[in-house]
Amino acid sequence: MSYIMVDIESDGPIPGDFSMICFGAVLVDEGLETTFYGKLKPISEKFNPDALAVSGFSREETMEFDDPKEVMLKFEEWIKENSKGRPIFISDNNGFDWMFICWYFHHFIERNPFGYSSRRLADLYCGLEKDTFAQWKHLRKTEHTHHPVDDAKGNAEVLLYMKKELGLKIGLK
């Protein structure tokens, strides 16, 4: 199994009505050098300016981004090329990130290489600490910039810390 840490940026709260603007993925291994970055053209006329501002892009810039179907096909190929066994989706806030990635995969290419489930990094950490309020974001080494590759890499660093320092039993391939 290969863990793939994912982070997305969007222009609103839900897929379909709003758009995933960009996303990043990092194969979780010792080097954290295998990454994917996609920028997607909006799929809807609706957007929330405050949500879009988090991405650092203007609406005009996003209109020049890549076709979502092509990006999702490239991401699927990247997953196939870089994962061993079943790929496992993991993110900081998988309720949000998974919702967009899963919807985009099924909407645009009618399948999701991750299957039907995902993992949440914070829940793993809270379980190890036996504290549902445990804070973990200070364990990131890479600054949280809202560039999705940076954010995914910082979160992957936390997962590696949990394995090395806290004894999380996890197979990373």
Automatic annotation (TrEMBL):
Pfam families: Rv2179c-like. Residues 3-160 form the 3'-5' exoribonuclease Rv2179c-like domain. This is 3'-5' exoribonuclease Rv2179c-like domain-containing protein. It comes from the Bacteria. It comes from Chryseobacterium ginsengisoli. InterPro entries: RNaseH-like_sf, RNaseH_sf, Rv2179c-like. The lineage of its organism: Bacteria, Pseudomonadati, Bacteroidota, Flavobacteriia, Flavobacteriales.
